[in-house]
Amino acid sequence: MPRLNRKSITLAIVLAVLALLPFWVGNRYQLHIAALIGIYWVLIGGLNLVAGYAGPISVGHVGLLSVGAYTFAIVAGTHGVHPGLALVLAGAVGGLCGLLLGLPSLRLPGFYFAMSTLACSLIIGELALAKQNLTGGGVGIAVPGFPAPFHTPEGMYWLVLILGCAVTWLTWNVARRMWGRALIAVRDSVVAAQVVGVPVLRVKLTVFVFSGVTAGVAGALFGSLQSYITPDTFVFEMGLFFFVCIIVGGRGGIVGPLIGTAVLTMLPELAAPLARLGNCLYGVLMLLVVLLVPEGIGRLFETLMFRLRGTRPVSMPVKPDLARLEAAIKGRRLVQ
Amino acid sequence: MLTVLISGLASGALFAAAALVYNVMFSTSKVLGVQTGQTAMLGGVFGAWFIRTFHFPIPLALLGSIFVGGVFGFLTDLIAVRRVLNRSDEHLWLLSTLAFATITQQVVALLWGTEPLPFPRVVPQDFSAGLLDQKYWLPILTALALAAGIELFYRRTLYGKLFLAMSEDPFAARARGVPTDRIRALSYVISGAMGGLAGFMAGQLTFAYFAVGITLSLNGFIALAVGGLGSNTGALVGGAALGILSAGASYFIGGEYQNTVSVGLLMVVLLLKPAGLFGAQVARPV
Question: Between chain A and chain B, how many beta carbons pairs sit less than 8 Å apart?
Answer without folding.
Answer: 99
